[in-house]
Amino acid sequence: MYRIVLVDDEPLILAGIVSLIRWEDWDCTVVGKATNGPKALELIHEVLPDIVITDIRMPVMNGLELMEECRRQGYHPAFIILTNLEEFQLARKAVSLGAIDYLVKLNLEPEQLCDALDRAKRFCDQQESHQNRQLYDQLLRDNAGQLEQNIFYQLLLGPGTGELVIPEELSARYPYPLVIQFTMQPEQIRFNTFDPYDFPFIRQQLTDILSGICSRYFQAFTILFSAENCILLTGCLKTADYAKAALSEFCSKVNGTLNIYFGLKAVFGICDAPEGIQYLPQAAAHARDAMKHYYYDSSSPVIFYDQQTPPSAAHRDFNINLLKRPIASAVTQNNSSQLKSIFAELADLFHEYHPSHSQAVSACINLYTYLNGLFLNEGSRYSHIFPDTLDIVEHVKQLISLQDILIWLDSFSKQLCLLMEERREKPLDKLVCQTKQYVREHYREKLTLSDIANHLNISPGHLSNTFRKVSDMTLSDYIAQVKIEEAMKLIDTHQYLIYEVADMLGFENAYYFSKVFRKVTGQSPREYEQAGRTP
Questions:
Q1: What pTM does this model have?
Q2: What pLDDT, in 10s, does the model give residues 252-268?
Q3: Taking CA atoms, which of 54, 151, 158, 358 is between 20 and 30 Å from 368?
Q4: Distance CA 82, CA 5 (A)
């Protein structure tokens, strides 16, 4: 696989390029994305890509400067430059610096991107490091088990050029195969409460666990990752019957296991009754069509094809820009009720228009980017509320159904309304005073950020950020300071053992108490006690 890094200061452009082609079909994989030159340089140093596709105009460090700095530091990936129409002279300069090709963003088509990738790959083939990687890949392909997987990959996910010869022994192993597509997403889909899933990292664990479940239901099976969070399973049941009950049970087992091990949930699209290995491409298309039905009707996570026709998306443009002016007004006036009403209107638009998945995702990112800009214009005090835009793009793209997207929008609305109520009702200085008062009243308890935030009816992130900003110290440091001040008073009485003092002040154990004591005072509790006894 050729490793690709994408660089552009517009997150939607990055998302658009990622979705423009199926990268695996061209023996490529996107290993990283960056929104400016310095971040791209750090990423290139970390992942050592074969190919870099970069915008030519970016803040801080533009594409030409990125190329020059890479060469200076000894990195020699193949560069493909993204330009606008008026940047032709810059593009020519990029080519003179060694860029393999340049592409005009406004007119970019899949064929143009693929042609540029072919030229870049030929350049990479001349690099010694990539030649070594090709030898390793060839050894893997020679493996018998890998050969079977390669045939199914070409049959179901390949470009479809030329006639594929299917070995007789493979047809014998899969006399009545079927295809199941399942797409995974985090169980928790609400805004700002997710951890990005590193699907490539857990891929081998997923494969091992799924193989164990598949072996109970299928006499032969092959697992293919068609995307980071999407799997195509080709399997042949242990009986010739097309048993929906057994398939439903299998899907239920997989879903339960995914939830226990990874906190994931999956949706399954299952093809019609199998007709032979030569019909697998059609079976895969049916499984994908079943998944399209789920996007609009998410009442069950298991969908059999059965000639289902998904509801048609609206053909009208789905444009939320008309809502931006009232949104700006609500934020400026700190009117959470008005903002909540606008989000309800947006939800009604989603129900009325039935936007496609790509339309809905674009609308969510458009809305998030706009609101992010409104709040960040007020300063960095709200930066902890808004995750990096690229993380939001990846998270929303993983949402499988329109209902999931509406849940995400609702949780985003609630987070914003809570934030607006916090800044209206709790001035920063007053909030810090309330926090300090609570700590001094409850210092004998095991205090946590979440407990204090719940008591004050605000979010933990807002409390943490505000306390640090106003007090110039973290809340945990303040809690430690108060507890140790009280500990010193107790030790000075010479009435308690060290572990008793630790227990009285809510520490988990004497060791942790001593560690915090030393951090605050520079000496251990025992040293402090002995110093107090010295005449």
A1: 0.52
A2: 999 998 888 888 889 99
A3: 54
A4: 13
